[in-house]
Amino acid sequence: MNKKQRHSIVTTLRNYPSFPVDREWIEETSHGAAVELHQAQATRRTSFTEFYKAQLYFISWKVWALQLLIVAGMGVLLHNFINHPQGNVQIVMLASISAPLLVITGIQTLTRSLTFHMLEIELSTRYMLEKLTLVRMSLLGIADLIGLILLALLLNMWIQTGIWSLLLYLLVPFNIACLGSLWLLNRIRTSNCGYYCLLYCALLVIVQIIFTFNYSFSLFLSSVTGLWQVLLVLSTVGIVYETRGVCRTCRSLETASRIQF
Known about the structure:
Layout: H1 3-15, H2 23-43, H3 48-58, H4 61-79, H5 87-96, H6 98-115, H7 119-123, H8 129-158, H9 163-187, H10 193-213, H11 225-260
Helix pairs in contact: 4-6, 4-8, 5-9, 5-10, 6-8, 6-9, 6-10, 8-9, 8-11, 9-10, 9-11
């Protein structure tokens, strides 16, 4: 296209009559579009129950199967120790090993985004990263607690120990495993953070095994029940504190992503 043709086209476009703009009509159109968008989003809004179900499906079936396998396998193992000379104490100590094992099964789910470099994808979803993390933590925690309660019920049928005492001996190791894992997750935000949690829980299991076969009866005397209760309260407070730290970490990651993008 030469200069003369270009000038002719520009002149024609300038002389082309334009229709008058109705400001009121434009505002009405914009307002109507905003209302339609709001109504469409409201009809597609996910309820709290639906959101929980969606996250339940997000967790791999292998996690649930592994948790069930731990509870069932531990039940069979404990049943074989019923007639052991030091039966009651050693059965309880063996049962407590299942607590950190259950925590181990959920670590990969909580660290999957960092391990597989998928954090940017989750940050781009419609749900806040904080909400996603808390829901997944609660689902895994509920499943772990159900498993520990089932073990406590089995033990209560086999040995002469109160159900509340059995739950106390199971919940304290569980809380310690959770507390240590949350502490690590709050301070190590790399793709290897899950492995540090696994290592911590594995060391906790090894310590429990050593205590189990060294017959540390003094740990389960009625005189030290108060100490177990104090440990349960302190570990629960620590879990709440570290969970708040997880929330702060998620919010900081979301803020950083908005600044970056």
